[in-house]
From TrEMBL:
Originating organism: Podargus strigoides
Biological process according to GO: adaptive immune response; B cell differentiation; B cell receptor signaling pathway
The protein's name in its UniProt record: B-cell antigen receptor complex-associated protein beta chain
UniProt domain Immunoglobulin: residue ranges: 11-103
Claim: Signal is one of the keywords in the record: yes
Transmembrane segments: 120-141
Amino acid sequence: GSRCPMVHQHPRYVAAKKNMPVHFICYSQEPHSMQWYKMQEDSDDFYVLDHNSSRYSINTNADFINFTIFRIKYQDNGIYVCDSKNLTAEKRPHLCGTELRVMGHSNIQQIQSRNTLKDAIIIIQSILLVIFISIPVLLFLDKVSDNISSTSFFFTQGLEVEQMATYEDITPFRDVKAKWTVGEHPGEE
């Protein structure tokens, strides 16, 4: 099944550089009835690792079973599982294994090109951030200034309109002489 058996496998994930040694330990009450399996991530196939070779060794103790790969290679990528001996296609290893990722060595040019790419991405992100922050702010300020200028325009226009006479209020000019008597002045009482 997919449940983890009564074993404790250590570590759960290993990422190491090519040609480095790696060690996996499986603690169990019955380590002599356990063995190591290798499973590919994108495949249903599993491989039995039951004997020592020039590339790896398996050591069984009273409390654990140790698996060591002396110099890892890219083909060692996969999931290593400690489970019961003699598993078949019908009874597959459990999924509680240790994932191994083999990392490559980087040379100076690869590191510099990665750093240059990171710097370029940071600069582009900064420019986009400034653009996406400044455009809404400028649009908001432009809208506010338009509202202020249009409000002041309406206030000044409104005052001018109220102070002006309309067409109906304008009377035709007549040359009429004032009708006051001699000695009277309109400003005098």
